[in-house]
Each structure stands twice: as C-alpha cells, then as structure tokens.
Specification:
507 residues; alpha/beta; 7-stranded mixed β-sheet; 19 strands; globular; binds 1,4-dihydronicotinamide adenine dinucleotide; binds magnesium ion
C-alpha cells in the first residue's frame, strides 16, 4: 500500500490572461446583458488544488431568477427567436459548437482551474464533447417532424378528416447543473433546449460557475438573441430553489444528487411542471472469468477513477469472478497507486483534487465508515490533508453488501470490490441490488454471454468490454432513482417538446 498523505503538491501557474479575466467580479447573463446581482452580492470561487479564492462571481437569487424568467418568457413568445426558421436556429447552434472549439484551450484551462480536473482531460473530453453536443443537436433543429395520422373517427361516420401532429417547444425551461463536468453539463442541457426552440434559465453550480459564464459569451457571439439563454450563478437553496418553483417556468431539467432531485420534484409539483432528472448512481462493473484480465484491469481502473470518481456513472461496485479476482483487483490497485495526483493545470497530472472541501469531507467520511465496518483498503484509503482536496485513489476489499460504502454513492475515487463464483441469477440480482441504476459494465471474452447479462441489468447504459463511452448520439439516463428521462441522442428531444394533434374536417 502506497501511503501518499502529506506529499506536497506542485503549484500550478495560472495563465496571466485567465488571471486578468478573473480579477474583477464575474457578472451573470440576463436578457442578453452581463449584469451584477440585484442584491449586489458576490460569492467566492475556489481552486480545489489549493483552497485559494480564484474569482468572485455575482450571486444570483430569487430576484435575479425572476428577471431571467421574464426575459426568457419574452424571448419565447415574441422577437427573433420565436420567428426564426429551424434552419437559422440550427446554424446558430452549430456556430456555438464551432466557437467552443475555437476557444478550446481557454475553456479547458478554466475548467482545470475551477473544477480541478487535468487540463488535458478537460480538453479531450469536456470541451470536445461539449462542442460535439451543439454540433450534433444543431442537425435536429430541421428534423422535429410530426406525423400524418390516419384516423377512424368512429363518432362521425362518413366524415373525412386530415390529422397531423406538430412538435412544439415546451416553453421556458429552468435548468440546474452540477460541478463535475461544468461545461459539458451546460452543453447537455442547453443544446437540446435550443434545438427545440425553447428559452432557458440555466443555474450553474456554485462550485464551478466559470466555464458556463464564458460559454454564455460564446452563445451571444454565435447570434443567439437576447433572453433566449440566461445564466445565473448562485446557490441551490436560493437561486436553484427559486427556479424550480417559479410559476412561469414550464419545465425543469436537473442534474445532481438524488436528494435534491426529490426537492426539485416537490418544488415543481405545485404547478405540475414537467421535470427531467439525471441523478446519482452506484454502477456495477462485472468481470467474468473469461475476460481479458489486462483489458478488464485498465477498464475497471478508468471506470472508477476517471474524473476523480466524480461521475454519476462511475463503475464503483466491481464484481470479479473468483478465478480472476486477485489478479484484477490487485491490478486495479497497482494502477491506482501509479496515478499521479496534482493540480489540474500541472502538465503531468492524471488526477486532480475533489471539487470542494465539502466533497473532500464527504469522501473521507466514507473511507472512515468503510474501515469501521470492516472493509480493507488495498491501496489509498485516505485524504491527503493539506490545503487542497486530494484523496488517494482507493480500492476496498472485504466488503459486505450491507456496508454504507457498498450501498451509497460516494462520488469520489473509491472502488468496492467483491468476488462471485457463478454467472447466475444471484450475480445479476446483486448487480441490480441498488436504489440507483444509471450504468453498468460487463467484461467477457464471449460477447453473446455478455449481451445476455447486459439485457438483464436494470441500467440506462451498459458498456461491454469498455466503459465511459459517451456520444452525443447515444441516450443517457437512469432507471429507478437514477432519474427521469434521457440526456443526449434523439431521446432528449422529448424532454423539451410538446406534441400537438391537429385535425381538420375536409368533407
Ligand atoms: P447537489 O445536488 O446539491 O447540487 C447540484 C445542483 O443542484 C447545484 O447547481 C446546486 O446548486 C443545485 N441545488 C442544490 N440544492 C438545491 C435546491 N434545494 N433546489 C434547487 N437546486 C438545488 O449536489 P452536491 O451537493 O454538489 O453534491 C452532493 C452529492 O450529490 C455528491 O456527493 C454526489 O453524490 C451527488 N452528485 C451527483 C451528480 C450527478 O452527476 N448525478 C453531480 C453532483 C453531485
Ligand atoms: Mg448539495
């Protein structure tokens, strides 16, 4: 076991242009203008690698949300956005994707600084996929087709009708996003809402507001009219809650904790707003005895440790068949020990800090609880202490199904591993034994066998001999308490559309 505690972290150099840009308080975007909060308040944003303040950002609350919703309503009902052709809308959305790519280095730098993730990862994953989301969605703007539907009209014998459906934007959408992929979550939410012709008030996470605010500038530059996208930084209990319960919001789309997902549903229930939710997970990753062990080791390592374990779909429960258990689990632990921790802006960093002090305390709290309940860390097992929020990548063995570390979402670099004897109903039942069910992995040399298991897993996504393969074209979302509805792909469009049936009597 590699004890890493108290290893001093290298300090990263913030590029002067970014530092300069952050030297004054960042305003919020309402009705096409960059404005301070009505209250005049700002809040601090921290570098999770050092705990130092890196920016002050306008603190939106109820009053600002109200102005933003009014602007979004005006933009939805009248003005250029409401009159725009699908083709024009699509071109503007495509242009947002282009501008993201034009600014890829700056956006990746902001993300690394604000969230703590390695800049190279932010570039290759977060920013690239954000651009692709706008590019992919832009094509749907011209393809939101209804149907011509032959009807029987039993109550009007002899009469003749033409019936059709029309897909219409749902209206003003309130979107609330978390901090684990700040830019990408903004893209996942904004791109389909814009494609369908909705207008948006986006509440970004208080931990990581910076990249979405920069995206707001690019959105205006692309030609999105004033009021169509409003971006409010602020806290969940104030700005988030005000948005979720606002009577003039037609739909709320949320990504975050299952606990807050419940609050959103409650807040939205008074006006019966439409709600979509992308929530937590405790995803099983199953290695069958016939899997290629090297592939499974690399895959299981990435499944849990990518993004410091801060993924709703993290493969956090590893099940390995008895013949491969020691090899795979020790292999994952050896890989974990090699992962280079450091600030996101330091060149050779492979894993950054947890996003905040709160998350650091939460994850290390789980590590303590695991030890108390009898689990054993074969690598990592502790927070690194100091002023940054680093946690050593950890693999826990000797776990039991009822332990908190096995049941609850940790949202940090902590894997629980257990062995199984047979590929049978009991294995599938244990994999499905969770309140969540966002994703799952299966590793096997026999793809038909893996597919049979995939079919039985109650998960929104199953990866076979791979993990974390996301694509703008693929729907993503959860069964059970992992959420309602799907993000991405054609499937997400229904989150933002109403279906209208129009019937004309023609004879
Ligand atoms: P959270 O669910 O509190 O925060 C997500 C977003 O919801 C943020 O923008 C926050 O400001 C907002 N929010 C919080 N309370 C709200 C309320 N009452 N009304 C409206 N909006 C509200 O997540 P948090 O506290 O950052 O993390 C806690 C745990 O949640 C994590 O440890 C992890 O288990 C889970 N989580 C899951 C995510 C996912 O992608 N599924 C992302 C982030 C956290
Ligand atoms: Mg919270």
């Amino acid at each position: 076991m590699n004890i890493r505690a108290n290893i001093p972290m290298p300090t990263a150099v913030v590029p002067p242009a970014i530092r300069e840009g952050l030297s004054t308080a960042r305003p919020m975007l309402i009705d096409g203008k960059w404005v301070a909060a009505q209250s005049g308040k700002t809040f601090e944003v921290f570098d999770p690698a050092t705990g130092e303040t890196i920016a002050h950002v306008a603190e939106g609350d109820k009053a600002d949300v109200d102005l933003a919703v009014k602007a979004a309503r005006r933009a939805f009902e009248a003005g250029p956005w409401a009159q725009m052709t699908p083709s024009e809308r699509g071109r503007i959305i495509h242009c947002i994707g282009d501008l993201i790519l034009d600014n890829i280095d700056e956006l990746a730098t902001i993300e690394a600084l604000d969230n703590g993730k390695p800049k190279a990862v932010a570039k290759a994953a977060d920013v690239t996929l954000s651009a692709d989301m706008f590019h992919y969605m832009s094509g749907w703007a011209t393809k939101l087709e209804g149907k011509h539907i032959p009807i029987s009209a039993l109550t009007a014998p002899g009469a003749e009708f033409v019936s059709m459906t029309r897909m219409e934007p749902i209206g003003v959408v309130g979107q609330i996003i978390p901090w684990n992929f700040p830019l990408l979550m903004a893209a996942w939410k904004l791109a389909p809402a814009l494609t369908t012709g909705c207008t948006v008030v986006l509440k970004v996470a208080e931990e990581t507001p910076l990249s979405a605010l920069r995206l707001g500038e690019l959105i205006l530059e692309a030609g999105v009219p004033a009021g169509v996208v409003n971006i409010i930084p602020g806290f969940g209990e104030t700005a988030g809650a005000a948005l979720a319960e606002h009577p003039n919001v037609d739909k709320v789309a949320f990504t975050g904790s299952t606990e807050v997902g419940r609050l959103i549903v409650h807040a939205a229930s008074r006006d019966l707003k439409k709600v979509s939710l992308e929530l937590g997970g405790k995803s099983p990753n199953i290695v069958l005895g016939d899997a290629d062990p090297e592939l499974a080791i690399a895959g299981a390592t990435a499944a849990i440790f990518f993004n410091h374990g801060q993924c709703c779909n993290a493969g956090s429960r590893l099940f390995v068949q008895r013949n491969l258990f020691d090899k795979v689990v020790e292999g994952v632990a050896a890989e974990a020990d090699k992962i280079k921790l450091g600030p996101g802006l330091t060149e050779d960093t492979e894993m950054g800090p947890q996003v905040s002090r709160v998350q650091y305390d939460r994850v290390t709290g789980y590590l303590a609880s695991g030890t108390e309940e009898g689990a054993r860390a074969i690598c990592g097992g502790e927070g690194l202490g100091g002023s940054g929020y680093f946690v050593a990548p950890t693999v826990l063995v000797d776990t039991k199904p009822e332990m908190k570390v096995v049941r609850e979402e940790i949202f940090g670099p902590v894997l629980v591993a257990s062995r199984f004897d047979e590929v049978d109903d009991a294995l599938v039942a244990e994999a499905n034994n969770t309140i969540y069910d966002l994703a799952a992995g299966v590793w096997s040399g026999d793809s038909a066998r893996a597919l049979r298991i995939a079919n039985r897993l109650r998960a929104g996504t199953v990866w076979i001999n791979c993990y974390h393969v996301f694509d703008a074209a693929l729907p993503f979302g959860g069964y059970k308490q992992s959420g309602w509805g799907r993000e991405m792909g054609q499937a997400v469009l229904s989150n933002y559309l109403e279906t209208k049936a129009i019937t004309t009597r023609i004879g």
